Amino acid sequence: MAAKTATSKISPVVVGSGQGKSTTYISTKVTGPDKLGNFNSEIIQSDNASGGGEKTIGSRDSNGNITWNKDASNKIKLNESKFKKASNNQISSLANQLATTAVEKQGLNAAAGKGNQDNTDGNTDSSQSKATPSSRDETGKLSGSDKSNPVPRNSYETGLCYPVAMRRDLQDNLKIDVIKFNPKKWDGAKSLERVSGETIGSVVLPVPSSVNDTNQTTWGQGTMSAVDMAKANVVKTALGDEGGTAAGEEIGSIMGQMQKDGPTVNKALKSFFTQQLTGTKDILARTSGAVLNPNMELLFQGPALRSFSFSWKMSPRDQKESVVIAKIIRMFKQSMAPQKTDAGLFLKAPNIYKLQFNDGTDRHKFLPKIKECALENCAVNYTPDGGYMTYDNTAMVALEMSLTFKEMEPIYNNDMSHSDDSIGY
After folding, report:
1. Structural domain contains residue 135
2. Most C-beta atoms within 10 A of its C-beta, which of 18, 103, 211, 370?
3. Backbone Cα Rg of the chain
4. β partners of residue 56
5. 211 and 350 inside one domain
6. Residue 201 and residue 267 in contact, taking contact as beta carbons nearer than 8 Å
7. How many CB atoms lie within 10 A of CB 195?
8. Which residues, including other chains, have CB under 8 Å from residue 413's CB and lie 6 or more apart?
9. End position of a domain, from candidates 270, 295, 320
10. Torsion angles phi and psi, residue 228, rounded to 5
């Protein structure tokens, strides 16, 4: 018998809810049976329920498996089960037009994803007419079981990557390792270098759209008047090897310097000691319109720790990738949390992180090196587009994850080599 072709009526497929709700109109064109009694079909998308703008977005083989083409949107692909169910019903609706014998009905049921349905008339061995159902892909689901555990988690996946299809060997990326925290040890009055802990998880992400670093050193103004200098010099000299004799000589030197200014110094000293004895402020400024020279200058006060903030907007392309995104977010949330001891009396430090920008598999020489960091903030926006939208497996259509890291140690001059081999820290 020659193959026939029939097209179903157009049906709406509703995806999402609320502001994110959308409707797609599809029909299914079925061709068959062939010599083996099999049917193939095409899924056609229309502009509305009345038709128009028809385009083929996918094909189905004789077992009902769907292969989407480039005209199928990501939303359609991620909600495949809804579109497959609608197409199954459309194929079944064409049974009277395309299938008359039990074998043809069996073939049509297989094309509609109902390969295990018995279509015999009671006089045929049904075991020979039933097709084996295809296995179900569960990779796009989460168990939902989230029981607490008295033992802190110290192992995560080490091969996480988003996007899943990213070519890590060629594309620039940011690799983040989760490592166990090891406190520094002391050797007398010297603090030893921290020994890097064991890597217990890792993820490779695209280089964020915004990458910044700010190297800081803390400076502040300092003052020291002539009186402060004199007092400091006397005490410093007295604590030296020559002790009181040298201190006496230092006092004599100071008195000699003061006599050069004569009356001005005497007046200033009277005001100074009066101020010290009575607690009255600004006597010298009020009585003579002058102040002691503060000898102000900018003084080095210490290094500063750097912070890094990164953000990624993640949109899963299929069910498997939606689970990968959930695992990435879960890893950061759980690993940054403090850990309770067995008795609950103390809290242990969370895990820390090693960040490295890569040019493929090698360290990126034009992006900054980063020391081991603590994760201070992990923020997730589940509705970055302003509306609540989910896929068929209840995964969000898009998420935005923002992470704020702070380095565990400041940057020192000695941390960088003498050659300009990279942009450095």
Report:
1. no
2. 370
3. 38
4. 44
5. yes
6. no
7. 9
8. none
9. 295
10. -65, -40
